[in-house]
Every structure is written in C-alpha cells, then in structure tokens.
Specification:
The structure is a homodimer of 146-residue chains. The first copy, chain A, folds into two domains: 3-87, Arc Repressor Mutant, subunit A; 93-135, Dna Ligase, domain 1. Chain A has five helices and five strands, in the order H-H-H-H-E-E-E-E-H-E. Chain A has helices at residues 3-15, 22-33, 41-50, 57-69, 109-121, and strands spanning 73-76, 84-87, 93-97, 103-106, 125-136. In chain A, helix 1 (3-15) crosses helix 2 (22-33), helix 2 packs across helix 4 and helix 3 (41-50) crosses helix 4. In chain A, 19% of the residues are buried. At the A-B interface, helix 5 and strand 5 of A face helix 5 and strand 5 of B. Strand 5 (125-136) of chain A pairs antiparallel with strand 5 (125-136) of chain B. Chain B binds a DNA duplex (25 and 25 nucleotides) through helix 2 and helix 4.
Chain lengths: 146, 146
DNA sequence: TTCCTTGCAAACGTTTTGCATCGGT
DNA sequence: ACCGATGCAAAACGTTTGCAAGGAA
C-alpha cells in the first residue's frame, strides 16, 4: 500500500475519534487493499495470522464495529449465521452465487427509484434497503467452492 | 380455528411425510391463525407456554425446519442474530420500521421484472431474492416498541 | 410393534464482555 | 501519566445434536 493511503487511513481514524493503533491500521489496510472483498471476522483473523500478526479475535470484532460506526466499512448479513464486512463505497447491492459463493456488486438507478416509490405508497420514510439476488453465476470457475 | 383448517393442516403434514403430532399441529395452527405475523422460535415458545403447552425449544426448531422444507412456512433473516418465520404465501417483500419493528408486506411487479433484467445483465440464473426496505412507518402507534 | 418424534442437556459457532495489562497521545 | 485499546478466557446468544423415553401409525 502507498504512503498516501496509509496517511489517509490515519486521518480517517483520527476523525472518528479512534487512536491510531497497530490493529486498526492492519485491519483497515486489508479492506483498502481489496475494496471488493467481503471478509468475515474469522477470515480476517486467518489472514492476519498468516501475515504474522497476533491480533485477537475479540479485538477484530471490536475494531470492525468501530470502523462500521465510523462509516469506513459496511456490514452485510447475507448468511444467517455470520456477518461479512467490506470497504464502504458508494451504495450498491449484491448478486450472490449459491453454488460457489462469489459475490457481484451492482448498482441500478431504476431500482433506487422504485424503492422510493414503494416507500411512498406505504407512507414509509426510507432509511436504507437490502437487495440481494441469489442464483448461479454461470462462470467457468464456479465450482471452486470457497 | 375451523375444522376445515385443521383438516387441511393434517393433509399438509401427511403430504410432507410428517406424522400428525401435537407439537406440529399447535405450531402450524399459530401460523394459520396469524398469516401475517412473523415469529421467532423464541416467540413461539413463549406463546405456546402461555397457552399451557410444554413443547421444548429444540422441538420448535425441528418443526420449523420441517415446515419450511414442506413449503408451509417461510424463513426470513431480517435481523442478523435470529430468524423470523411466517406462513408461506405468494411471493412478497418487506418494509420494516426501524423504530417499532412492525413489518409491512408488499408486492411490486416492476421490482420482479427489474431483478430479472439485472440478473440477465450479469449472466446470472436467478433463483431467489431478498428485498427489504428499512425506515419509519410513520404510524400513530409506532412508538409501541416490541 | 415399529420407527418417528420429543424433551432434556450438552454441544456448537459466532459474537460480546470482564478484567488485568499494554500502548497511543 | 492518562485513559483508551488489547489479549485472553469466559460468558452470552441463537441454534443444533445425542440420547433415552414417548407416541403416531
């Protein structure tokens, strides 16, 4: 990662009122380096361990919560039993392959408009939404189950 | 509940290859009697206990799984930490009030078409989808938090 | 009578928390 | 030096499972 990115992260952490600690930097770096990757707490633990880091799982959970609060990462509950975090980007939804687990992000303007329309119909003040499409990705390497 | 409904349920259980037991009947009845209610396993346990039933939580989980397999009820993962089940009806999506937790069901044809369109764009074979809108219901009795 | 179903308790996987220690600022 | 951040272990939480006893067919 570049020095610019590192400094940016330091700024972001400070802005959020968080101390610039080793754990937080390492975790934030992982997200920065793979902007489209979706990490579970456990996956992060494995990667960090592989990288020679000795950051505890409890710390990872605490940092993930703080980074989410700071709007730096986004929490997704695709599966019922665990959460997947990704770097916060502009709004998007997900296509998820039920065979290989791969995730495709997409944005659709019509969809955004349609939500507003539906909300209005029910006199609802829309705050956020989740739209996830499940199916088969039909890719050559689909069988490579994760 | 009417006798007709009871008999219908017996038929449905038999069709699914499930024995017509007390637990299964009681649970299925609860869903039938409140077609729009969304029950967690725990909520069902409380209601059954209030009704003088002594059905164990493990049994409730087992029955819920079986009824879902039999396509009699539908499992929703609105919250990250627990599942909510409802009677299986024709396809619909949900509006959820973040203040009072109330759930409104809706169907929108344009939305269904749009999903197909998006899936095609990514060469995806669509199997199912989840569309949940979060916001405020703006109802008079909204503050009655559940 | 057969075997599925149930209740209970124990196990499970993910996430949270208490507490003493460590480390940014 | 201060007070927040961390590691560890234990707890918490929803859910699943093993097993012996019970119940529908």
């Amino acid at each position: 990662m570049s020095y610019i990115k590192k400094n940016e992260n330091i700024e972001k952490l400070k802005e959020a009122g968080l101390k610039v600690t080793h754990s937080r930097c390492k975790i934030l770096e992982l997200f920065q380096n793979s902007p489209d990757e979706h990490y579970t707490a456990d996956k992060l633990k494995d990667i960090l361990t592989d990288n020679g880091e000795t950051i505890g799982l409890a710390t990872i959970y605490r940092v993930l919560t703080q980074l989410e609060m700071a709007d730096l990462i986004q929490k997704n509950n695709f599966q019922e039993n665990h959460s997947a975090y990704e770097l916060k980007k502009s709004h998007h939804d997900h296509l998820i392959c039920t065979k290989c687990g791969s995730i495709i992000e997409f944005v659709n303007e019509d969809l955004e408009k349609l939500q507003e329309h539906i909300s209005k119909k029910y006199n609802f003040s829309l705050e956020s939404h989740v739209m996830t499409l499940f199916g088969n990705c039909n890719k050559k390497d689909c069988k490579n189950l994760k």
